């Protein structure tokens, strides 16, 4: 077979990821905060983009020549003043400013003869600094001068007078500068302070700290012992037991019985009071008092200081009851950036720009600005379309509550609105919906399905979790429900579920096991009874 060269025409279809398509996909999955940041960067980068609600700054002077110009271009009122003599020397008025500056005043003697007095009497020899100092020393005469009233200056800002929030690191650093004078100890102390988390704890192992600082383990332990005496009590601990022990030493309550209790906090978490009473060697009344003292301590002493501020969750979609009994879905306009393409500016520039490179730059800027506006509009429409379909699919949730949440997946929504599943997944990422039952992430409405025991409609996993929580919350202290009992009750309600699934859902909701719940409720019931008996003994009923 001979090898030859020839030309062929082929026609095929392929999807090409253009930069504009990649930008549109990126905008879909951004949250409203990330989207605002992205648009702000584009506004700084692209001169043809502008905000739709831009207004001139308050202190910026207008560029209109009719408002602010020179004397010849001013309004009719300014011209009339010049003619009437306020700017000149007509009608016996004083000479104008230009006439004063251009006139030769003569020698000192001629000036004194003209003014009929000496220059020393006209111009004081006291320096301006002395006059300013006297004015500064004078007592304020108005309320605003004392700082009590609002200033008329536009730059006046009340936030400038707010004290900075004291952080835990700053608070410990101030005590460190007083506790140590040796530079080596201060360096070790500052390194350990930098390791303290927002709860006030240090890492359990400080061996790497000694190696990194080139100090001995004894030096690090010595500095740590001093740091643990800083305020607040319990700071710089490496475990919960050590934190509580530091606070008990501060209160002079760390006796052998209390030490045994602190060293066995796992038994206290399990409410194994019998074992704790044997280990501590005390009776029921003493162990109850000791547990009360432990509860009054602060397990996270560092949390009283300033920590990272929580970002407020702003919903992207609002769902409100409609007048016809349905639901009205609308976008939150505050989260949608309003940008426009300045076509007028581009037209003016295209007439003045002569270089090919500049023309290409502004052409690309116009194209990018146009694509960004279209992408933002398409993003808003897609979010509204997906949210509307979610509300239609989960109508029972909005009407009756979480117990009526239906199983839903991405494919069901994508098929209903004729979009791809990946598009729906990007739209529901980092988006929130404000409803009459609270604010939820859009992904909250997508739950797995659990088969029905009688072959009917499947149940949502979130609805099943809610059912399990209701069963556990309503159980009596004398009849705690085990996982097997919960499975039986769920199957009686038409939910086919396995025991391991119940255990998984229970642990995900941070609900303890039946054994732990029995101990907790019996302990709580015992405390209530002991309190009632104590009150009754203090206030006996009259015979």
TrEMBL record:
Residues 158-345 form the RNA polymerase sigma factor 54 core-binding domain. InterPro entries: RNA_pol_sigma_54, RNA_pol_sigma_54_core-bd, RNA_pol_sigma_54_DNA-bd, RpoN_core-bd_sf. GO terms for cellular component: DNA-directed RNA polymerase complex. Residues 524-534 have a biased composition (Polar residues). Residues 68-90 have a biased composition (Gly residues). Keywords: DNA-binding, DNA-directed RNA polymerase, Nucleotidyltransferase, Sigma factor, Transcription, Transcription regulation, Transferase. GO terms for molecular function: DNA binding; DNA-binding transcription activator activity; nucleotidyltransferase activity; sigma factor activity. The keyword Nucleotide-binding does not apply. Gene3D superfamilies: Homeodomain-like, RNA polymerase sigma-54 factor, core-binding domain. Sigma factors are initiation factors that promote the attachment of RNA polymerase to specific initiation sites and are then released. This is RNA polymerase sigma-54 factor.
């Amino acid at each position: 077979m001979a090898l030859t060269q020839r030309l062929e025409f082929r026609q095929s279809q392929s999807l090409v990821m253009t930069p504009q398509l990649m930008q549109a996909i990126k905008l879909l999955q951004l949250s409203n905060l990330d989207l605002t940041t992205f648009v702000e960067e584009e506004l700084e980068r692209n001169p043809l983009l502008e905000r739709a609600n831009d207004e001139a700054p308050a202190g910026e002077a207008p560029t209109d020549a009719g408002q602010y110009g020179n004397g010849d271009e001013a309004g009719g009122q300014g011209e009339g003043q010049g003619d009437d003599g306020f700017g000149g020397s007509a009608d016996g008025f004083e000479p104008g400013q230009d006439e004063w500056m251009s006139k030769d005043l003569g020698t000192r003697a001629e000036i004194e003869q003209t003014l009929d007095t000496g220059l020393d009497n006209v111009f004081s020899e006291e320096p301006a600094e002395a006059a300013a100092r006297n004015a500064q020393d004078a007592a304020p005469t108005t309320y605003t001068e004392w700082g009590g009233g609002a200033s008329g200056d536009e730059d006046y800002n009340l936030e400038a007078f707010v004290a900075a929030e004291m952080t835990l690191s700053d608070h410990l650093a101030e005590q460190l500068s007083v506790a140590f004078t040796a530079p080596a100890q201060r360096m070790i102390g500052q390194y350990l302070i930098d390791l303290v988390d927002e709860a006030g704890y240090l890492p359990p192992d400080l061996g790497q700290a000694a190696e990194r600082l080139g100090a001995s383990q004894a030096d690090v332990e010595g500095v740590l012992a001093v740091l643990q005496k800083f305020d607040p009590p319990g700071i710089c601990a490496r475990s919960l037991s050590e934190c509580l022990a530091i606070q008990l030493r501060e209160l002079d309550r760390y006796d052998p019985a209390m030490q045994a209790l602190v060293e066995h906090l796992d038994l206290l978490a399990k409410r194994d009071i019998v074992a704790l009473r044997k280990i501590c060697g005390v009776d029921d009344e003493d162990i109850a008092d000791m547990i009360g003292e432990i509860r009054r301590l602060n397990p996270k002493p560092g949390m009283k200081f300033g920590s990272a501020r929580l970002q407020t969750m702003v919903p992207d979609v609002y769902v409100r009851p409609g007048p016809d009994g349905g639901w009205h879905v609308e976008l939150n306009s505050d989260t949608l950036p309003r940008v426009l393409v300045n076509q007028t500016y581009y037209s003016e520039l295209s007439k003045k720009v002569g270089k090919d490179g500049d023309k290409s730059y502004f052409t690309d800027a116009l194209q990018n600005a146009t694509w960004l506006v279209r992408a933002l509009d398409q993003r808003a429409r897609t979010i509204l379309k997906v949210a509307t379909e979610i509300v239609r699919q989960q109508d029972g949730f909005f009407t009756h509550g979480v117990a009526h949440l239906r199983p839903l997946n991405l494919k069901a929504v994508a098929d209903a609105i004729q979009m791809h599943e990946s598009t729906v997944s990007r739209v529901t990422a980092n988006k929130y919906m404000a409803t009459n039952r609270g604010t939820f992430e859009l992904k909250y409405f997508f739950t797995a399905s659990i088969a029905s025991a009688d072959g009917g409609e499947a149940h949502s996993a979130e609805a099943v979790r809610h059912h399990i929580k209701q069963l556990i919350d309503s159980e009596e202290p004398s009849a705690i429900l085990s996982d097997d009992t919960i499975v039986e009750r769920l199957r009686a309600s038409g939910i086919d579920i396995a025991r391991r699934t119940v255990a998984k859902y229970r642990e995900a909701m941070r609900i303890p096991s039946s054994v732990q719940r029995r101990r907790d409720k019996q302990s709580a019931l015992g405390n209530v009874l002991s309190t009632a008996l104590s009150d009754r003994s203090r206030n006996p009923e009259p015979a």
